[in-house]
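Example 3.2
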Amino acid sequence: MERKIIDFHTHAFPDKIAGKTIEMLSKKGGIPAHTDGTVEGLRQVLSEAGISLGVVLPVVTRAEQFESITRFAVQINEEENNLLSFGGIHPDTPDYKHELKTLAELGFRGIKLHPDYQGVYFDDIRYMRIIEYASELGLIVLTHAGVDIGFPDAVRCTPERARKVLREVKPEKLVLAHCGGWRLWDEVMEKLAGEPVYLDTAYSMGHIPEELFVKLCRTHGVGKILFATDCPWGNPKKDVEVFLSMPLREEEQEMILHRNAEQLLGL
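Structure, written as tokens:
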């Protein structure tokens, strides 16, 4: 049976910097890449894995990158393909409300934050202001959570910090990547299971124990789990196979593979 699949967490870069960026990030994290880093490369790999739509997540590592990254993301969204890009914003931006309003007016459905690459703890007031205003604008906020392979000693979005943001800001559309916190899944079960937050499965298939993943899905609620690969760092074809091997009911699989994403994205 052919399944509809949405990958809620992927990455691509402008052609002129894709090669060098992939080489640098692959070396930093000590992991291979499964695309050449380009938009076309990502589109092809997702298609080969049977994925009908990939959400591209740009990371703004310096505040002054906002305009160039936004132009790149707009270009992705203007093309008729199997990709949909979010926008990005840096916590040090001098006018976060203006930038978020710009992204909303351009039709972006969400933004990506990365506490480790942006050097800010997730419960910092700068992030909480951004998340609060993004929520007012109806934007999805997706953040890296847990350990980042490239920054193993600095975990800036822990389940505890994420729970603090949930309690203080009460965002309606917050997504925590990597099953709520990469390599911190026991803590995710303890502090986040059942909370009003989405969890994506990026770079988690084959890493999180099967029994723990199934327990997390059912304890947290399958309606708040989003299939994702973190391509090019995750291997989409393999991740789909691992996910489908999980002892989940077909209805649960369908919700995680595409229905939850469709509802969240308003598709």
